[in-house]
Structure formats: C-alpha cells, structure tokens
Queue: 4 jobs
Job 1
Amino acid sequence: MTKILLALFLFTTNVPMVYAEVMNGHQVRKLYLKRDDIALVRTAVGIATIIQVPDHPTSVVVGDLNAFKVEYLDAAITIKPLNASAKSNLYIYTEARRFNVSLVTVAQGAADFIVYLEPERKVLAPQPKSQVERWRGFRTEKTNGSLKMKIRRLGVVADYLAVEFSLSSDKEMKFGPDWIWITQGGKSVPIQGLNLSAVKIHPGKEVLGGLMVRREDLLNHGPLVIEVRSSVPISIKLPGVNSWMK
C-alpha cells in the first residue's frame, strides 16, 4: 500500500486545512474541521462516495433532494449524484456536533472515495527542551610573554560543551575573536558561540570570554585544546569530554 501525504487547501468559505491520503490509486481524505468550516466533497456519477463521521449521525439534511441520493448506516453516509452537474449542500448532525458539507460532481478520476470528517485537533506547541546546564570548576592558566589565558570552568549546556575563560596582559593590546580556536586531535572543531566582554585588553583588566561547541561535532571523547592563535600563541589542554562532569 503506497501512502502519499498531501497538504491541500480547499477554496471554500471558512477553508479548513485538509490532509489527504492516497491509497492504491483511490483517494481517501481526512478533514479536521472547526465548527463552522465547510468541507468540500467531490462526487461522480457511477461512484458511491462515503463520508465517515466520528459518531452515529442522528439526521442528514441535503439541500437538493433531486441532485443526490443520500443513505447512511452507523457512522457512514453514502453519497451518489443523480446527474453530472449535481451540486448541493449537506448537513450531518451527530450527537456531538454538526458537520457542514458542500457537494460537487466531478469526473470519476477526481472523485473522493472516502472522506473522514473529524473535529479540529488541538495541536499543542512543542515545549522547548529543558536547557540542562551543569558546570564544574577547572582552573588552569598559561602565559606567553605579556599575554595570559585562564580557564575558569567547564560546562554542559543542553547539547553543547562550554568553556569560560579570561585573557589579560600587562600591556595594552587589541584582541581579535578569530584568535580563539578549539581543536581535538589536531583538527579544528566549529565554535557555535563565542562571547567576549571586550575586544581590547587593558593592563590590569581581564577580558572575560565564553564559548560553546556542539557535542556532535566532536571527533571522539578525547581531550580538547583551546588555542589563542596570535603573535603570542597560547595552547591549553582541556580534559577528555567524558570527564567534564566528574
């Protein structure tokens, strides 16, 4: 059984969104309707179209009795047009609600075989994943000439690994965000977020920074290396990924 899911708009008053499922070449559609929506059902001479409602219909009212033959059994209503230009409206009353239908007659190849009418489903907006955030202290530092880098702590934020660090110098220097790199096994790892409190280092004042890398971008569970690639390079080895939360 081949199933193709199509999203179609019906060009009628109070247009409902229709989800159509095509099975073995015969069209079967399921419509989710608000109370005042009008469902378009396509019939054809020589075809019996079934309209299925969720519960037992208590009555069925067709606008033009000379245009369609309407029968119902349990929760299924069978519609047959009596001529090639037949069209009418149809009301289906159940114990729970009323369904509004517009009936048209088309060529056999475009006719509906089965149409399921359902109340509109209440779709809840997906809830954001909780941003699990855990940190561990990890203090180490390295100095090259006048430039010093300190690692302050390591963390896991949802699907990311995070590093907080600071940079300082005993003389004034400009600092470029492109100086900061993360590598693993000698290969660079994409940095997904980099925050800096300043882009110029003043003597006696630290520049605070934070960066995040995505766990799925890591090559393995081995250690990461944070690097400052400048005229005074610094490289600090961080723990293996598995040990960040220990």
Note: The CA atoms of residues 104 and 211 lie 61 Å apart.
Job 2
Amino acid sequence: MNYGIYGGAFDPFHAGHLSVIRGALKSKKIDKILVIPTGIPAIKSSRNLSLPPYRYYMATKAVKNIENCEVSPVEFTLMKPSYTIDTINSLLESGKINKSDRIYLVCGSDLLFDFDKWRQPEKLLEKVSLLVAKRPVNDEIGITLAAERIIEKYGAVIEFFQTDAVNISSTEIRSSHNFSLLPSPVQEFIEKHDLYPEDRPLDFLSDASFMALSLYCMKLFFELSEKRLLHSLNTAVLSVRYALRFGYDPNQAAIAGLLHDCAKELPIEDQRAFASEVITGRLPSKDMIHAPAGVKCALRSYDITDSMILDAINYHTTGRASMTGIEKIVYLADKLEPARDYDDLTEIRRLAELDLDSAMIECLSAVKDSLTRKGMSFHGQSSDALEELLRLKNDTTHKTDYMKSSSE
C-alpha cells in the first residue's frame, strides 16, 4: 500500500489543509493518507499553539467524510518534542505501516527550500519519498531547482501533485479571529470549546507548567474519552482564567483543572481501590468516587505531590468547609466550562467573574435545589461548604452594615 503522511500543527485546520489532502488523494499516487497533528513541536514553540488534543479533534471533525483519510495521534505516544524521522520510525515500529509499504511525505513546496534544516534528512529520505503540493501561483523555476538540488544531494524521490489556490494561514486566522473560512465542523468546535480566547490565559503559565500540561493531556488522550478529555481541557483553561482574576497560582489551577477527572473512566474496581488509599471509612457513591480516586491516580501516574492540587481534585465534586481558593476555582470551572449545557448557568458564570464565594453559594444552592427536586440527598460536605459560605457572607454583610452605621 502507498501511504501519504501529512503532518502539521493544524491550528486551526482550514481549507488549505483540505485542499492538500484532496489533491494528494486525487493524484492516485497514494492509497491512504494519514493526517498527523504535531504533539510537541521540535522547532517551533508549542506555547503559540493550542493544546495537542484540541488540534487532533479539530482535524478529525474536518476530514470525517473524506474517504481513505485518517487522523493519527502517533506523535502523542512519543511524549517529547518530535521530528519527522521519529514519527516515521514510530509508525513503522508500531506496525501501523508495514516495511513493505511505500511512504510518501506529503508537503507544500516551501519544504523544498528548507529541507536541509530537517533532522537527519538523508535517513528520512531512505524511508520516504516526497509528494509535493504545487499551487497555480507557485514559482515553477525555483521549485524545480530546489527539487533537483535535493535529488542530487540525497538521492531523493520527489513527485508533484496539483492543489487549488487557497490563500489562508493558520497564524493569520488565530490573530484575526476570523473563522468564517474554516470548515463548518471546525467552526462549531471552536465556538463550543471557546478556543483562541483573546485573553490567552495559558500564556501566563510558567514554561514548565505549560510543558507539563501538554504532556499530561497527551497521556490523558489514551485514558479518557473524547468528551471527557475535552471537558478536562476546558476546565483547565477556565481554572487558569479564574486563578488569574482572583490572584491564585495559575500553574496549580491548570494542573488541577486538567487532572480533576483523571480517574473518571478507570474500571470501578480500580477507582474503589484507589479511593480506599485516600480516605478512611465509607467510600463515596459510584458517581463521586472518581474524585478521591483521582488523588491516587494523580500521584501514581502523573507524579503530582502538591497538596493544593490534590485537594482540588479530591473535593471537586462536593466541595467542603474551609475550601482553598484553588479548590473553589476547580469546583466552579468543572461546572461552568464553556461546553457545559446544564440548565441556565448565566448567573453563576456572571458571579464567577466577580466573586468566588458568591458564585460558590449560587452553584451549591443550584445543585441542592436540583437534587431536592429529584428526591436525592445533598452531600454532607456540600452542605458544610454552603452553610459556611452563607455564614461568612452574612457576617461580612453585618460587619459592613455596622461600620456604615457607625460612620454615620
């Protein structure tokens, strides 16, 4: 079989990418094309890119109806900055592509001018041929000369195919926030998950925390369903936004938000075993046991030892009395992330931008009312949290009223 390998950031996935895929398949030089979103880029800074799973899922939405096209998460398995040669080797070693198959590296003509800068170009060209996209506006003479130089220097096999002239850039799209030219499934995905926010909260993370966030979410890709992972990513971003607004550590908020459901889809027996190592006495119900289980999972699988992060994971379902700021942030972000479609969240979201305690009171009260209507019990720790917050609010109100009357 002839495989085409088409890699890139795809941030976001746009009409130009689709044009390359369709053109490569139409050329009949390949039987199937693997679209490979970058995990951790080896050359460019990943800080300018959306987190890897967001870009993977955008790509899957965009190519869903294209026959003989598949999106591969192979670079997520590498868990390190990856070069094309590493990606090709991984595909071969995993058996995704057989050594008897022919591999074409699908690329734009601009690659020909920078190919010497790639890692181990001579070894890469022992494994792949180049299948280069030519657009009507390309510099024919310059491309021909560049191709001839690579053929002469490396003994490369280079073939060309035609694509439509699509003048569009992912960088410009991210900068302008003009998503009108993107495939409609990608537009809907961006809107639902609030990608490319103008405040760019993840820019405020330390380099170490951003890298950890990127690595953790690629690991979670293989442990959580698409819906659960996207929820976790959204919770992480919103947690950072709240931490910045209210003066808490955005790095703690990011990791706690991302990992809050890390044990959610483990077998229930494993969740019970993990939870029993974290709490004593009666274990929580089936729908809540993932929270204490998540503490052990974060310790064991992600080497998290920060007690603030672990407590935020532990109490994100119920809350408790004397919650820390990070605990409140993750509790609220879990309920309010942009893809959540609970009954009207408008007021809680409004309050969460103004005052954490008021938002907690509103949110806990809404949960209590919902459970009461269903004839279910309000969790004891949730009740403790709500009562304490109401008492503190009343004490503050009385103190303010007293000071106001005294000054008069």
Note: The CA atoms of residues 185 and 317 lie 32 Å apart.
Job 3
Amino acid sequence: MKVLLEGSSLFFKNYTGIPYYILNLHQSMKAQEGVDAVLGFRMKKKFGKHMPRQREILKHDHLWYLGKFMIPLLRPQVAHTLHTPFLDINRALKVATIHDMAVHLPQFREYGLASQYFVEKRFKLLGEFAKKADALITVSDATKNDFLRFFDFPEDRIHVVPLAPSTFVPQGDVPGANNILDRFKLEKKRFFLFVGGISTRKNSINLIKAYQQSKSRRDFKLVIAGNSQEIPHKVALEYIDQNNLAKDILLTWYTEKDELRALYENARAFLFPTLYEGFGIPILEAMAHGLPVLTSNKGAAPKTSGGYAILVDPLAPENIAQGIDCLDNFNDGHLLDAKNFALGHTWDRTAKLTVDVYKEYL
C-alpha cells in the first residue's frame, strides 16, 4: 500500500503537537507490514531556508508536489492530509486528520483564540475536508462531535484514532539533566510544570492566578515551558510583578526535547488547566513520567486523562487552586495505574489504527 502523508507542517520553525504527530505517525507507519509511507511537501517549501531538523528529514525518502503533480512521480493508493493543505490526488483514497475545532466553537469566541483571518481560513479548509475527503480521522470523540456540529459528513466515515506520548517518554537518564535544572535554577521535585507557554488557549493567566492563590505556592515553584503569545505574555508579566511572583514563576520559552524531558522527569506534578484540547498529548506525557496531573474538565482532556487526573473548571482560578492543593492525595498505586494507562497509548498503535482506516475503504 503506497501512502502519501502531507508533511508541510514539518517546515514550522518550532515543533509542537502537529509536527510531532506527523513525524511519529510516519516513523511508526513505516513499520507497518505492507505499507510504503512517504512524506510529501508543497513545492514552495523546497526553496526556503531549512533548519537542521528539516535538512535531516530531507535526507530520507520524500517527494515534492505542486497541485496534483508529484516529483518524483508517485501514484499513491492513499493521500492523507495530516494538517494542511488538503491533498486532492486523483484515484487515491483521500483521508484527512482533524485535530481540534476550538477556534470555531461559539463559547470561545469572546476569547479571541485566533485571528479572524486564521478562523476563516481554517474553516474553509475543514469545509474542503467535508466535501472532498473519503474518510476523516479525528484524534478524539470531542473533536468528532465538534466537527459534526458544523459540517454535514457521514458520521460512520469519521474514525477516532487516539494519539500517543512523544517518543522521549521511556524512562532513563536525561543527558545533562542536572545542568539543565541548574541553568533554570530549579531543584528536583520542587516545582510544578506546565507545557504550552503563555497563551489564551492554554489558559495560562488563570493558571498563574490559581497558583498565586494555592497553599502549595509556599513549597513549589511554577515552571511554564513553551513559547508565549505577545499580549497574554504582557498581561502575565504584569500580574507576576504586581503580586511579587517573580521568584516563584519561571517562563522558559521554547524548550528542546532533552530540556522538556528533564523538566518532566524532575517536576513534582503537572498542571494543565487548558481552556480546551482536541486531545492533549502533554497529559499522557506527564502520566507516563509518573506525575500527578491536574487538567481541564472541558473538551477531550477528561477522556485523554482516563479518570486519573484531577479535573477542574478552567474558568475558575479558585477551583484550579483547590485542585493544585489536592495533588498530594494521589497514592503510588494510582500513579502507577495512570502511568500504565498512558504507556498503553503508543505511536505503533496509532499507526495501526490509521492503516486500518485505509484498509476499510480500499
């Protein structure tokens, strides 16, 4: 089975959820018997500046495409759009993955999760999926149900395929972990971790307010890892300054794989009261590292966490604060069960379920 995976999002400068989804799915799909999966990139990406990780990707089999024309020539049986743009290839089974619909949900319009241009462009793309795809994959039931609120598409042709933790999850010594912690001025098990940067979508301001209200603030720092949006970042800095939190809260900005892994390995607990997730891979990553987890009671987070996390109302800082102060209630048996649940999600499983979708229609 020849499978073309649209991978143009791998040319993003910084990698977050979607690029890692593409890389992990492609790598695991290559191990599926009878599957020949190749990444395809829009031709215009060929002529831009490539980062080291992109140059490494381009050392392996790939192709460039312009419209329906591919170099080198490939006639795939499956054309799978993993993010954007839509692969509309003649005589191929057309499949598309939908990650989340948060920016389109009416309950979040007042928060301005994305620019109007992005919202309209994304909605147009999803409309193209609805019109042209033979089958759709969503990463959660929540995303499937959200999509059906807006688009007329046969429900039996929408397949839920859960994701998995990043490939760095297996335990072991992190190279230079102590140096990483020293650089961030952190002590082992003396900080809470949040992954996602400062943004409206990730509910970072309410997290900071909740942390400020919590009793646990006396004993644990708060580390916020990831890039930040300009306006929420400014609001966060003002709040931190006004409430004398500068010594208690660390903003790391973008973290490389080893840095993030060192933070997971050495955190006391994981705080993730995001407004809304289409899936929420960091939840599984934290559980796989044996961390107590607090997350949102909205979107896909409750199901992704499998009943092993403290669920809070992301719009209520006082409720988040109460949840933070209950994280010590998890015993070792609960944390082990949570870890096993998270490790049951693998990219090999995701790849197999994805290939099963293809086979159903070929």
Note: The two ends are 10 Å apart (CA to CA).
Job 4
Amino acid sequence: MGTELVLLSDIEITGERVVAACADEHPEGTYIAYRGGDLGQLLDAEQRPLLTVFRSRPVSQPREAAAAVVDPPSTFALWTDMTIAYGDKGAGRAAAEAIARAVDGVIKERI
C-alpha cells in the first residue's frame, strides 16, 4: 500500500507546476495526466512511479478538512490528495515536498 499525503495550499496544483517543481531532482522524469487531468503520475527517468497527484479541490468546510490531517496550517483554500508509491525510498516524498514549496503549501499525512 502506498502512503497517502495531502497538500494544503492556496495555489492549484497543475502538471506544469509538478514538472517545474521536480525538475532539479528528476530532470528526465515524466508527468502523465489521466482522465482530463483528474489525476497524474510523476515517473522517474526509468519510468518508475514516484508520486500520484489528484486534482486540487476547494475546501468548503475548513474545520472538517483540518480535522483530517495532523497539525494543519491556520488557513488554506485547496486540498490536493497525493500518493507515494509503495516501497518508495524517499524520492516520492521529496517530490511532494518540492511541489509544496513551489506553491507555498504544506504536506500533511492523513489521519
């Protein structure tokens, strides 16, 4: 089973943002979007999955959303689910953190 993360931010995650944020660590990586961008997968240079990113969604009930993660930030407008591939040695988590930095967001683990 993979590791489920949540990115909380005010900026929407797009394929372009994922590629730009991960370019230093994975310059030959690939981002493949599925179902019209509802989800995408970041692959390393050997085409191994690193991170699955789901479409960002607006947070309509901030209190309920905050209760679903450990130590939530005080404000955020968007919720983006992410999954790190099973057996990840740290590259998937590093990619998630790079994306969070690029959009001034935070990565949290789901409760």
Note: The mean pLDDT is 92.
